[in-house]
Design a protein that fits this description.
The chain is built from two helices and six strands. With about 160 residues, the protein is an alpha+beta fold. It comes from Blastopirellula retiformator.
């Protein structure tokens, strides 16, 4: 099972920054256990939403060159507030630096303009087949492009 923890990309400047949203619904299965009487988005899923948002910036900036974009390191993660059902987590990720395969981002998540989470993330990217893309790489890239078109329909209008 794969979780897509952002619902929409609302702004994108390739090579610079991206803004995405996650609309938290009481229907999300994990909220049944986290926590039944006080449902809130788990901190690890807030971090994953920030990672996914940053990964979309890499993919869009490099024209989907790599099939795998993963979290390498999370630094200075700070949780400031809960995200409850009915609220929208807005994630803003800004590219700080790129060194080889690693890219560093300054990322924050807000709810109604108020801080909820922040971190410095380092993401790695590569292809399973190395310099020669494998059939698995090509398949993953096609799937990523299709999901990107759903999350950011404005891209097809540009």
């Amino acid at each position: 099972m794969r979780f897509t923890l952002i619902d929409r990309i609302t702004d994108l400047v390739p090579g610079e920054r991206i803004v995405a949203t996650k609309c938290l619904s009481l229907a999300e299965e994990y909220l049944q256990d986290h926590f039944p009487l006080f449902p809130v988005m788990p901190g690890v899923l807030m971090l994953e939403a920030m990672t996914q948002t940053s990964a979309w910036l890499i993919r869009a900036s490099e024209d989907f060159m790599h099939s795998v974009v993963i979290l390498h390191e999370a630094r200075n993660v700070k949780y400031a507030d809960f995200v409850e059902p009915g609220e929208v987590l807005t994630v803003t990720s800004e590219l700080v630096k790129q060194e080889g395969r690693l890219t560093t981002f300054k990322v924050k998540g807000t709810v109604a303009g108020n801080p909820a989470v922040s971190a410095k993330l380092v993401l790695d990217r590569y292809n399973l087949g190395g310099d020669e893309k494998s059939s698995s790489d090509r398949h993953a890239i096609v799937n990523s492009r299709e999901l990107f078109d759903l999350l950011y329909p404005e891209a097809s209008r540009v």
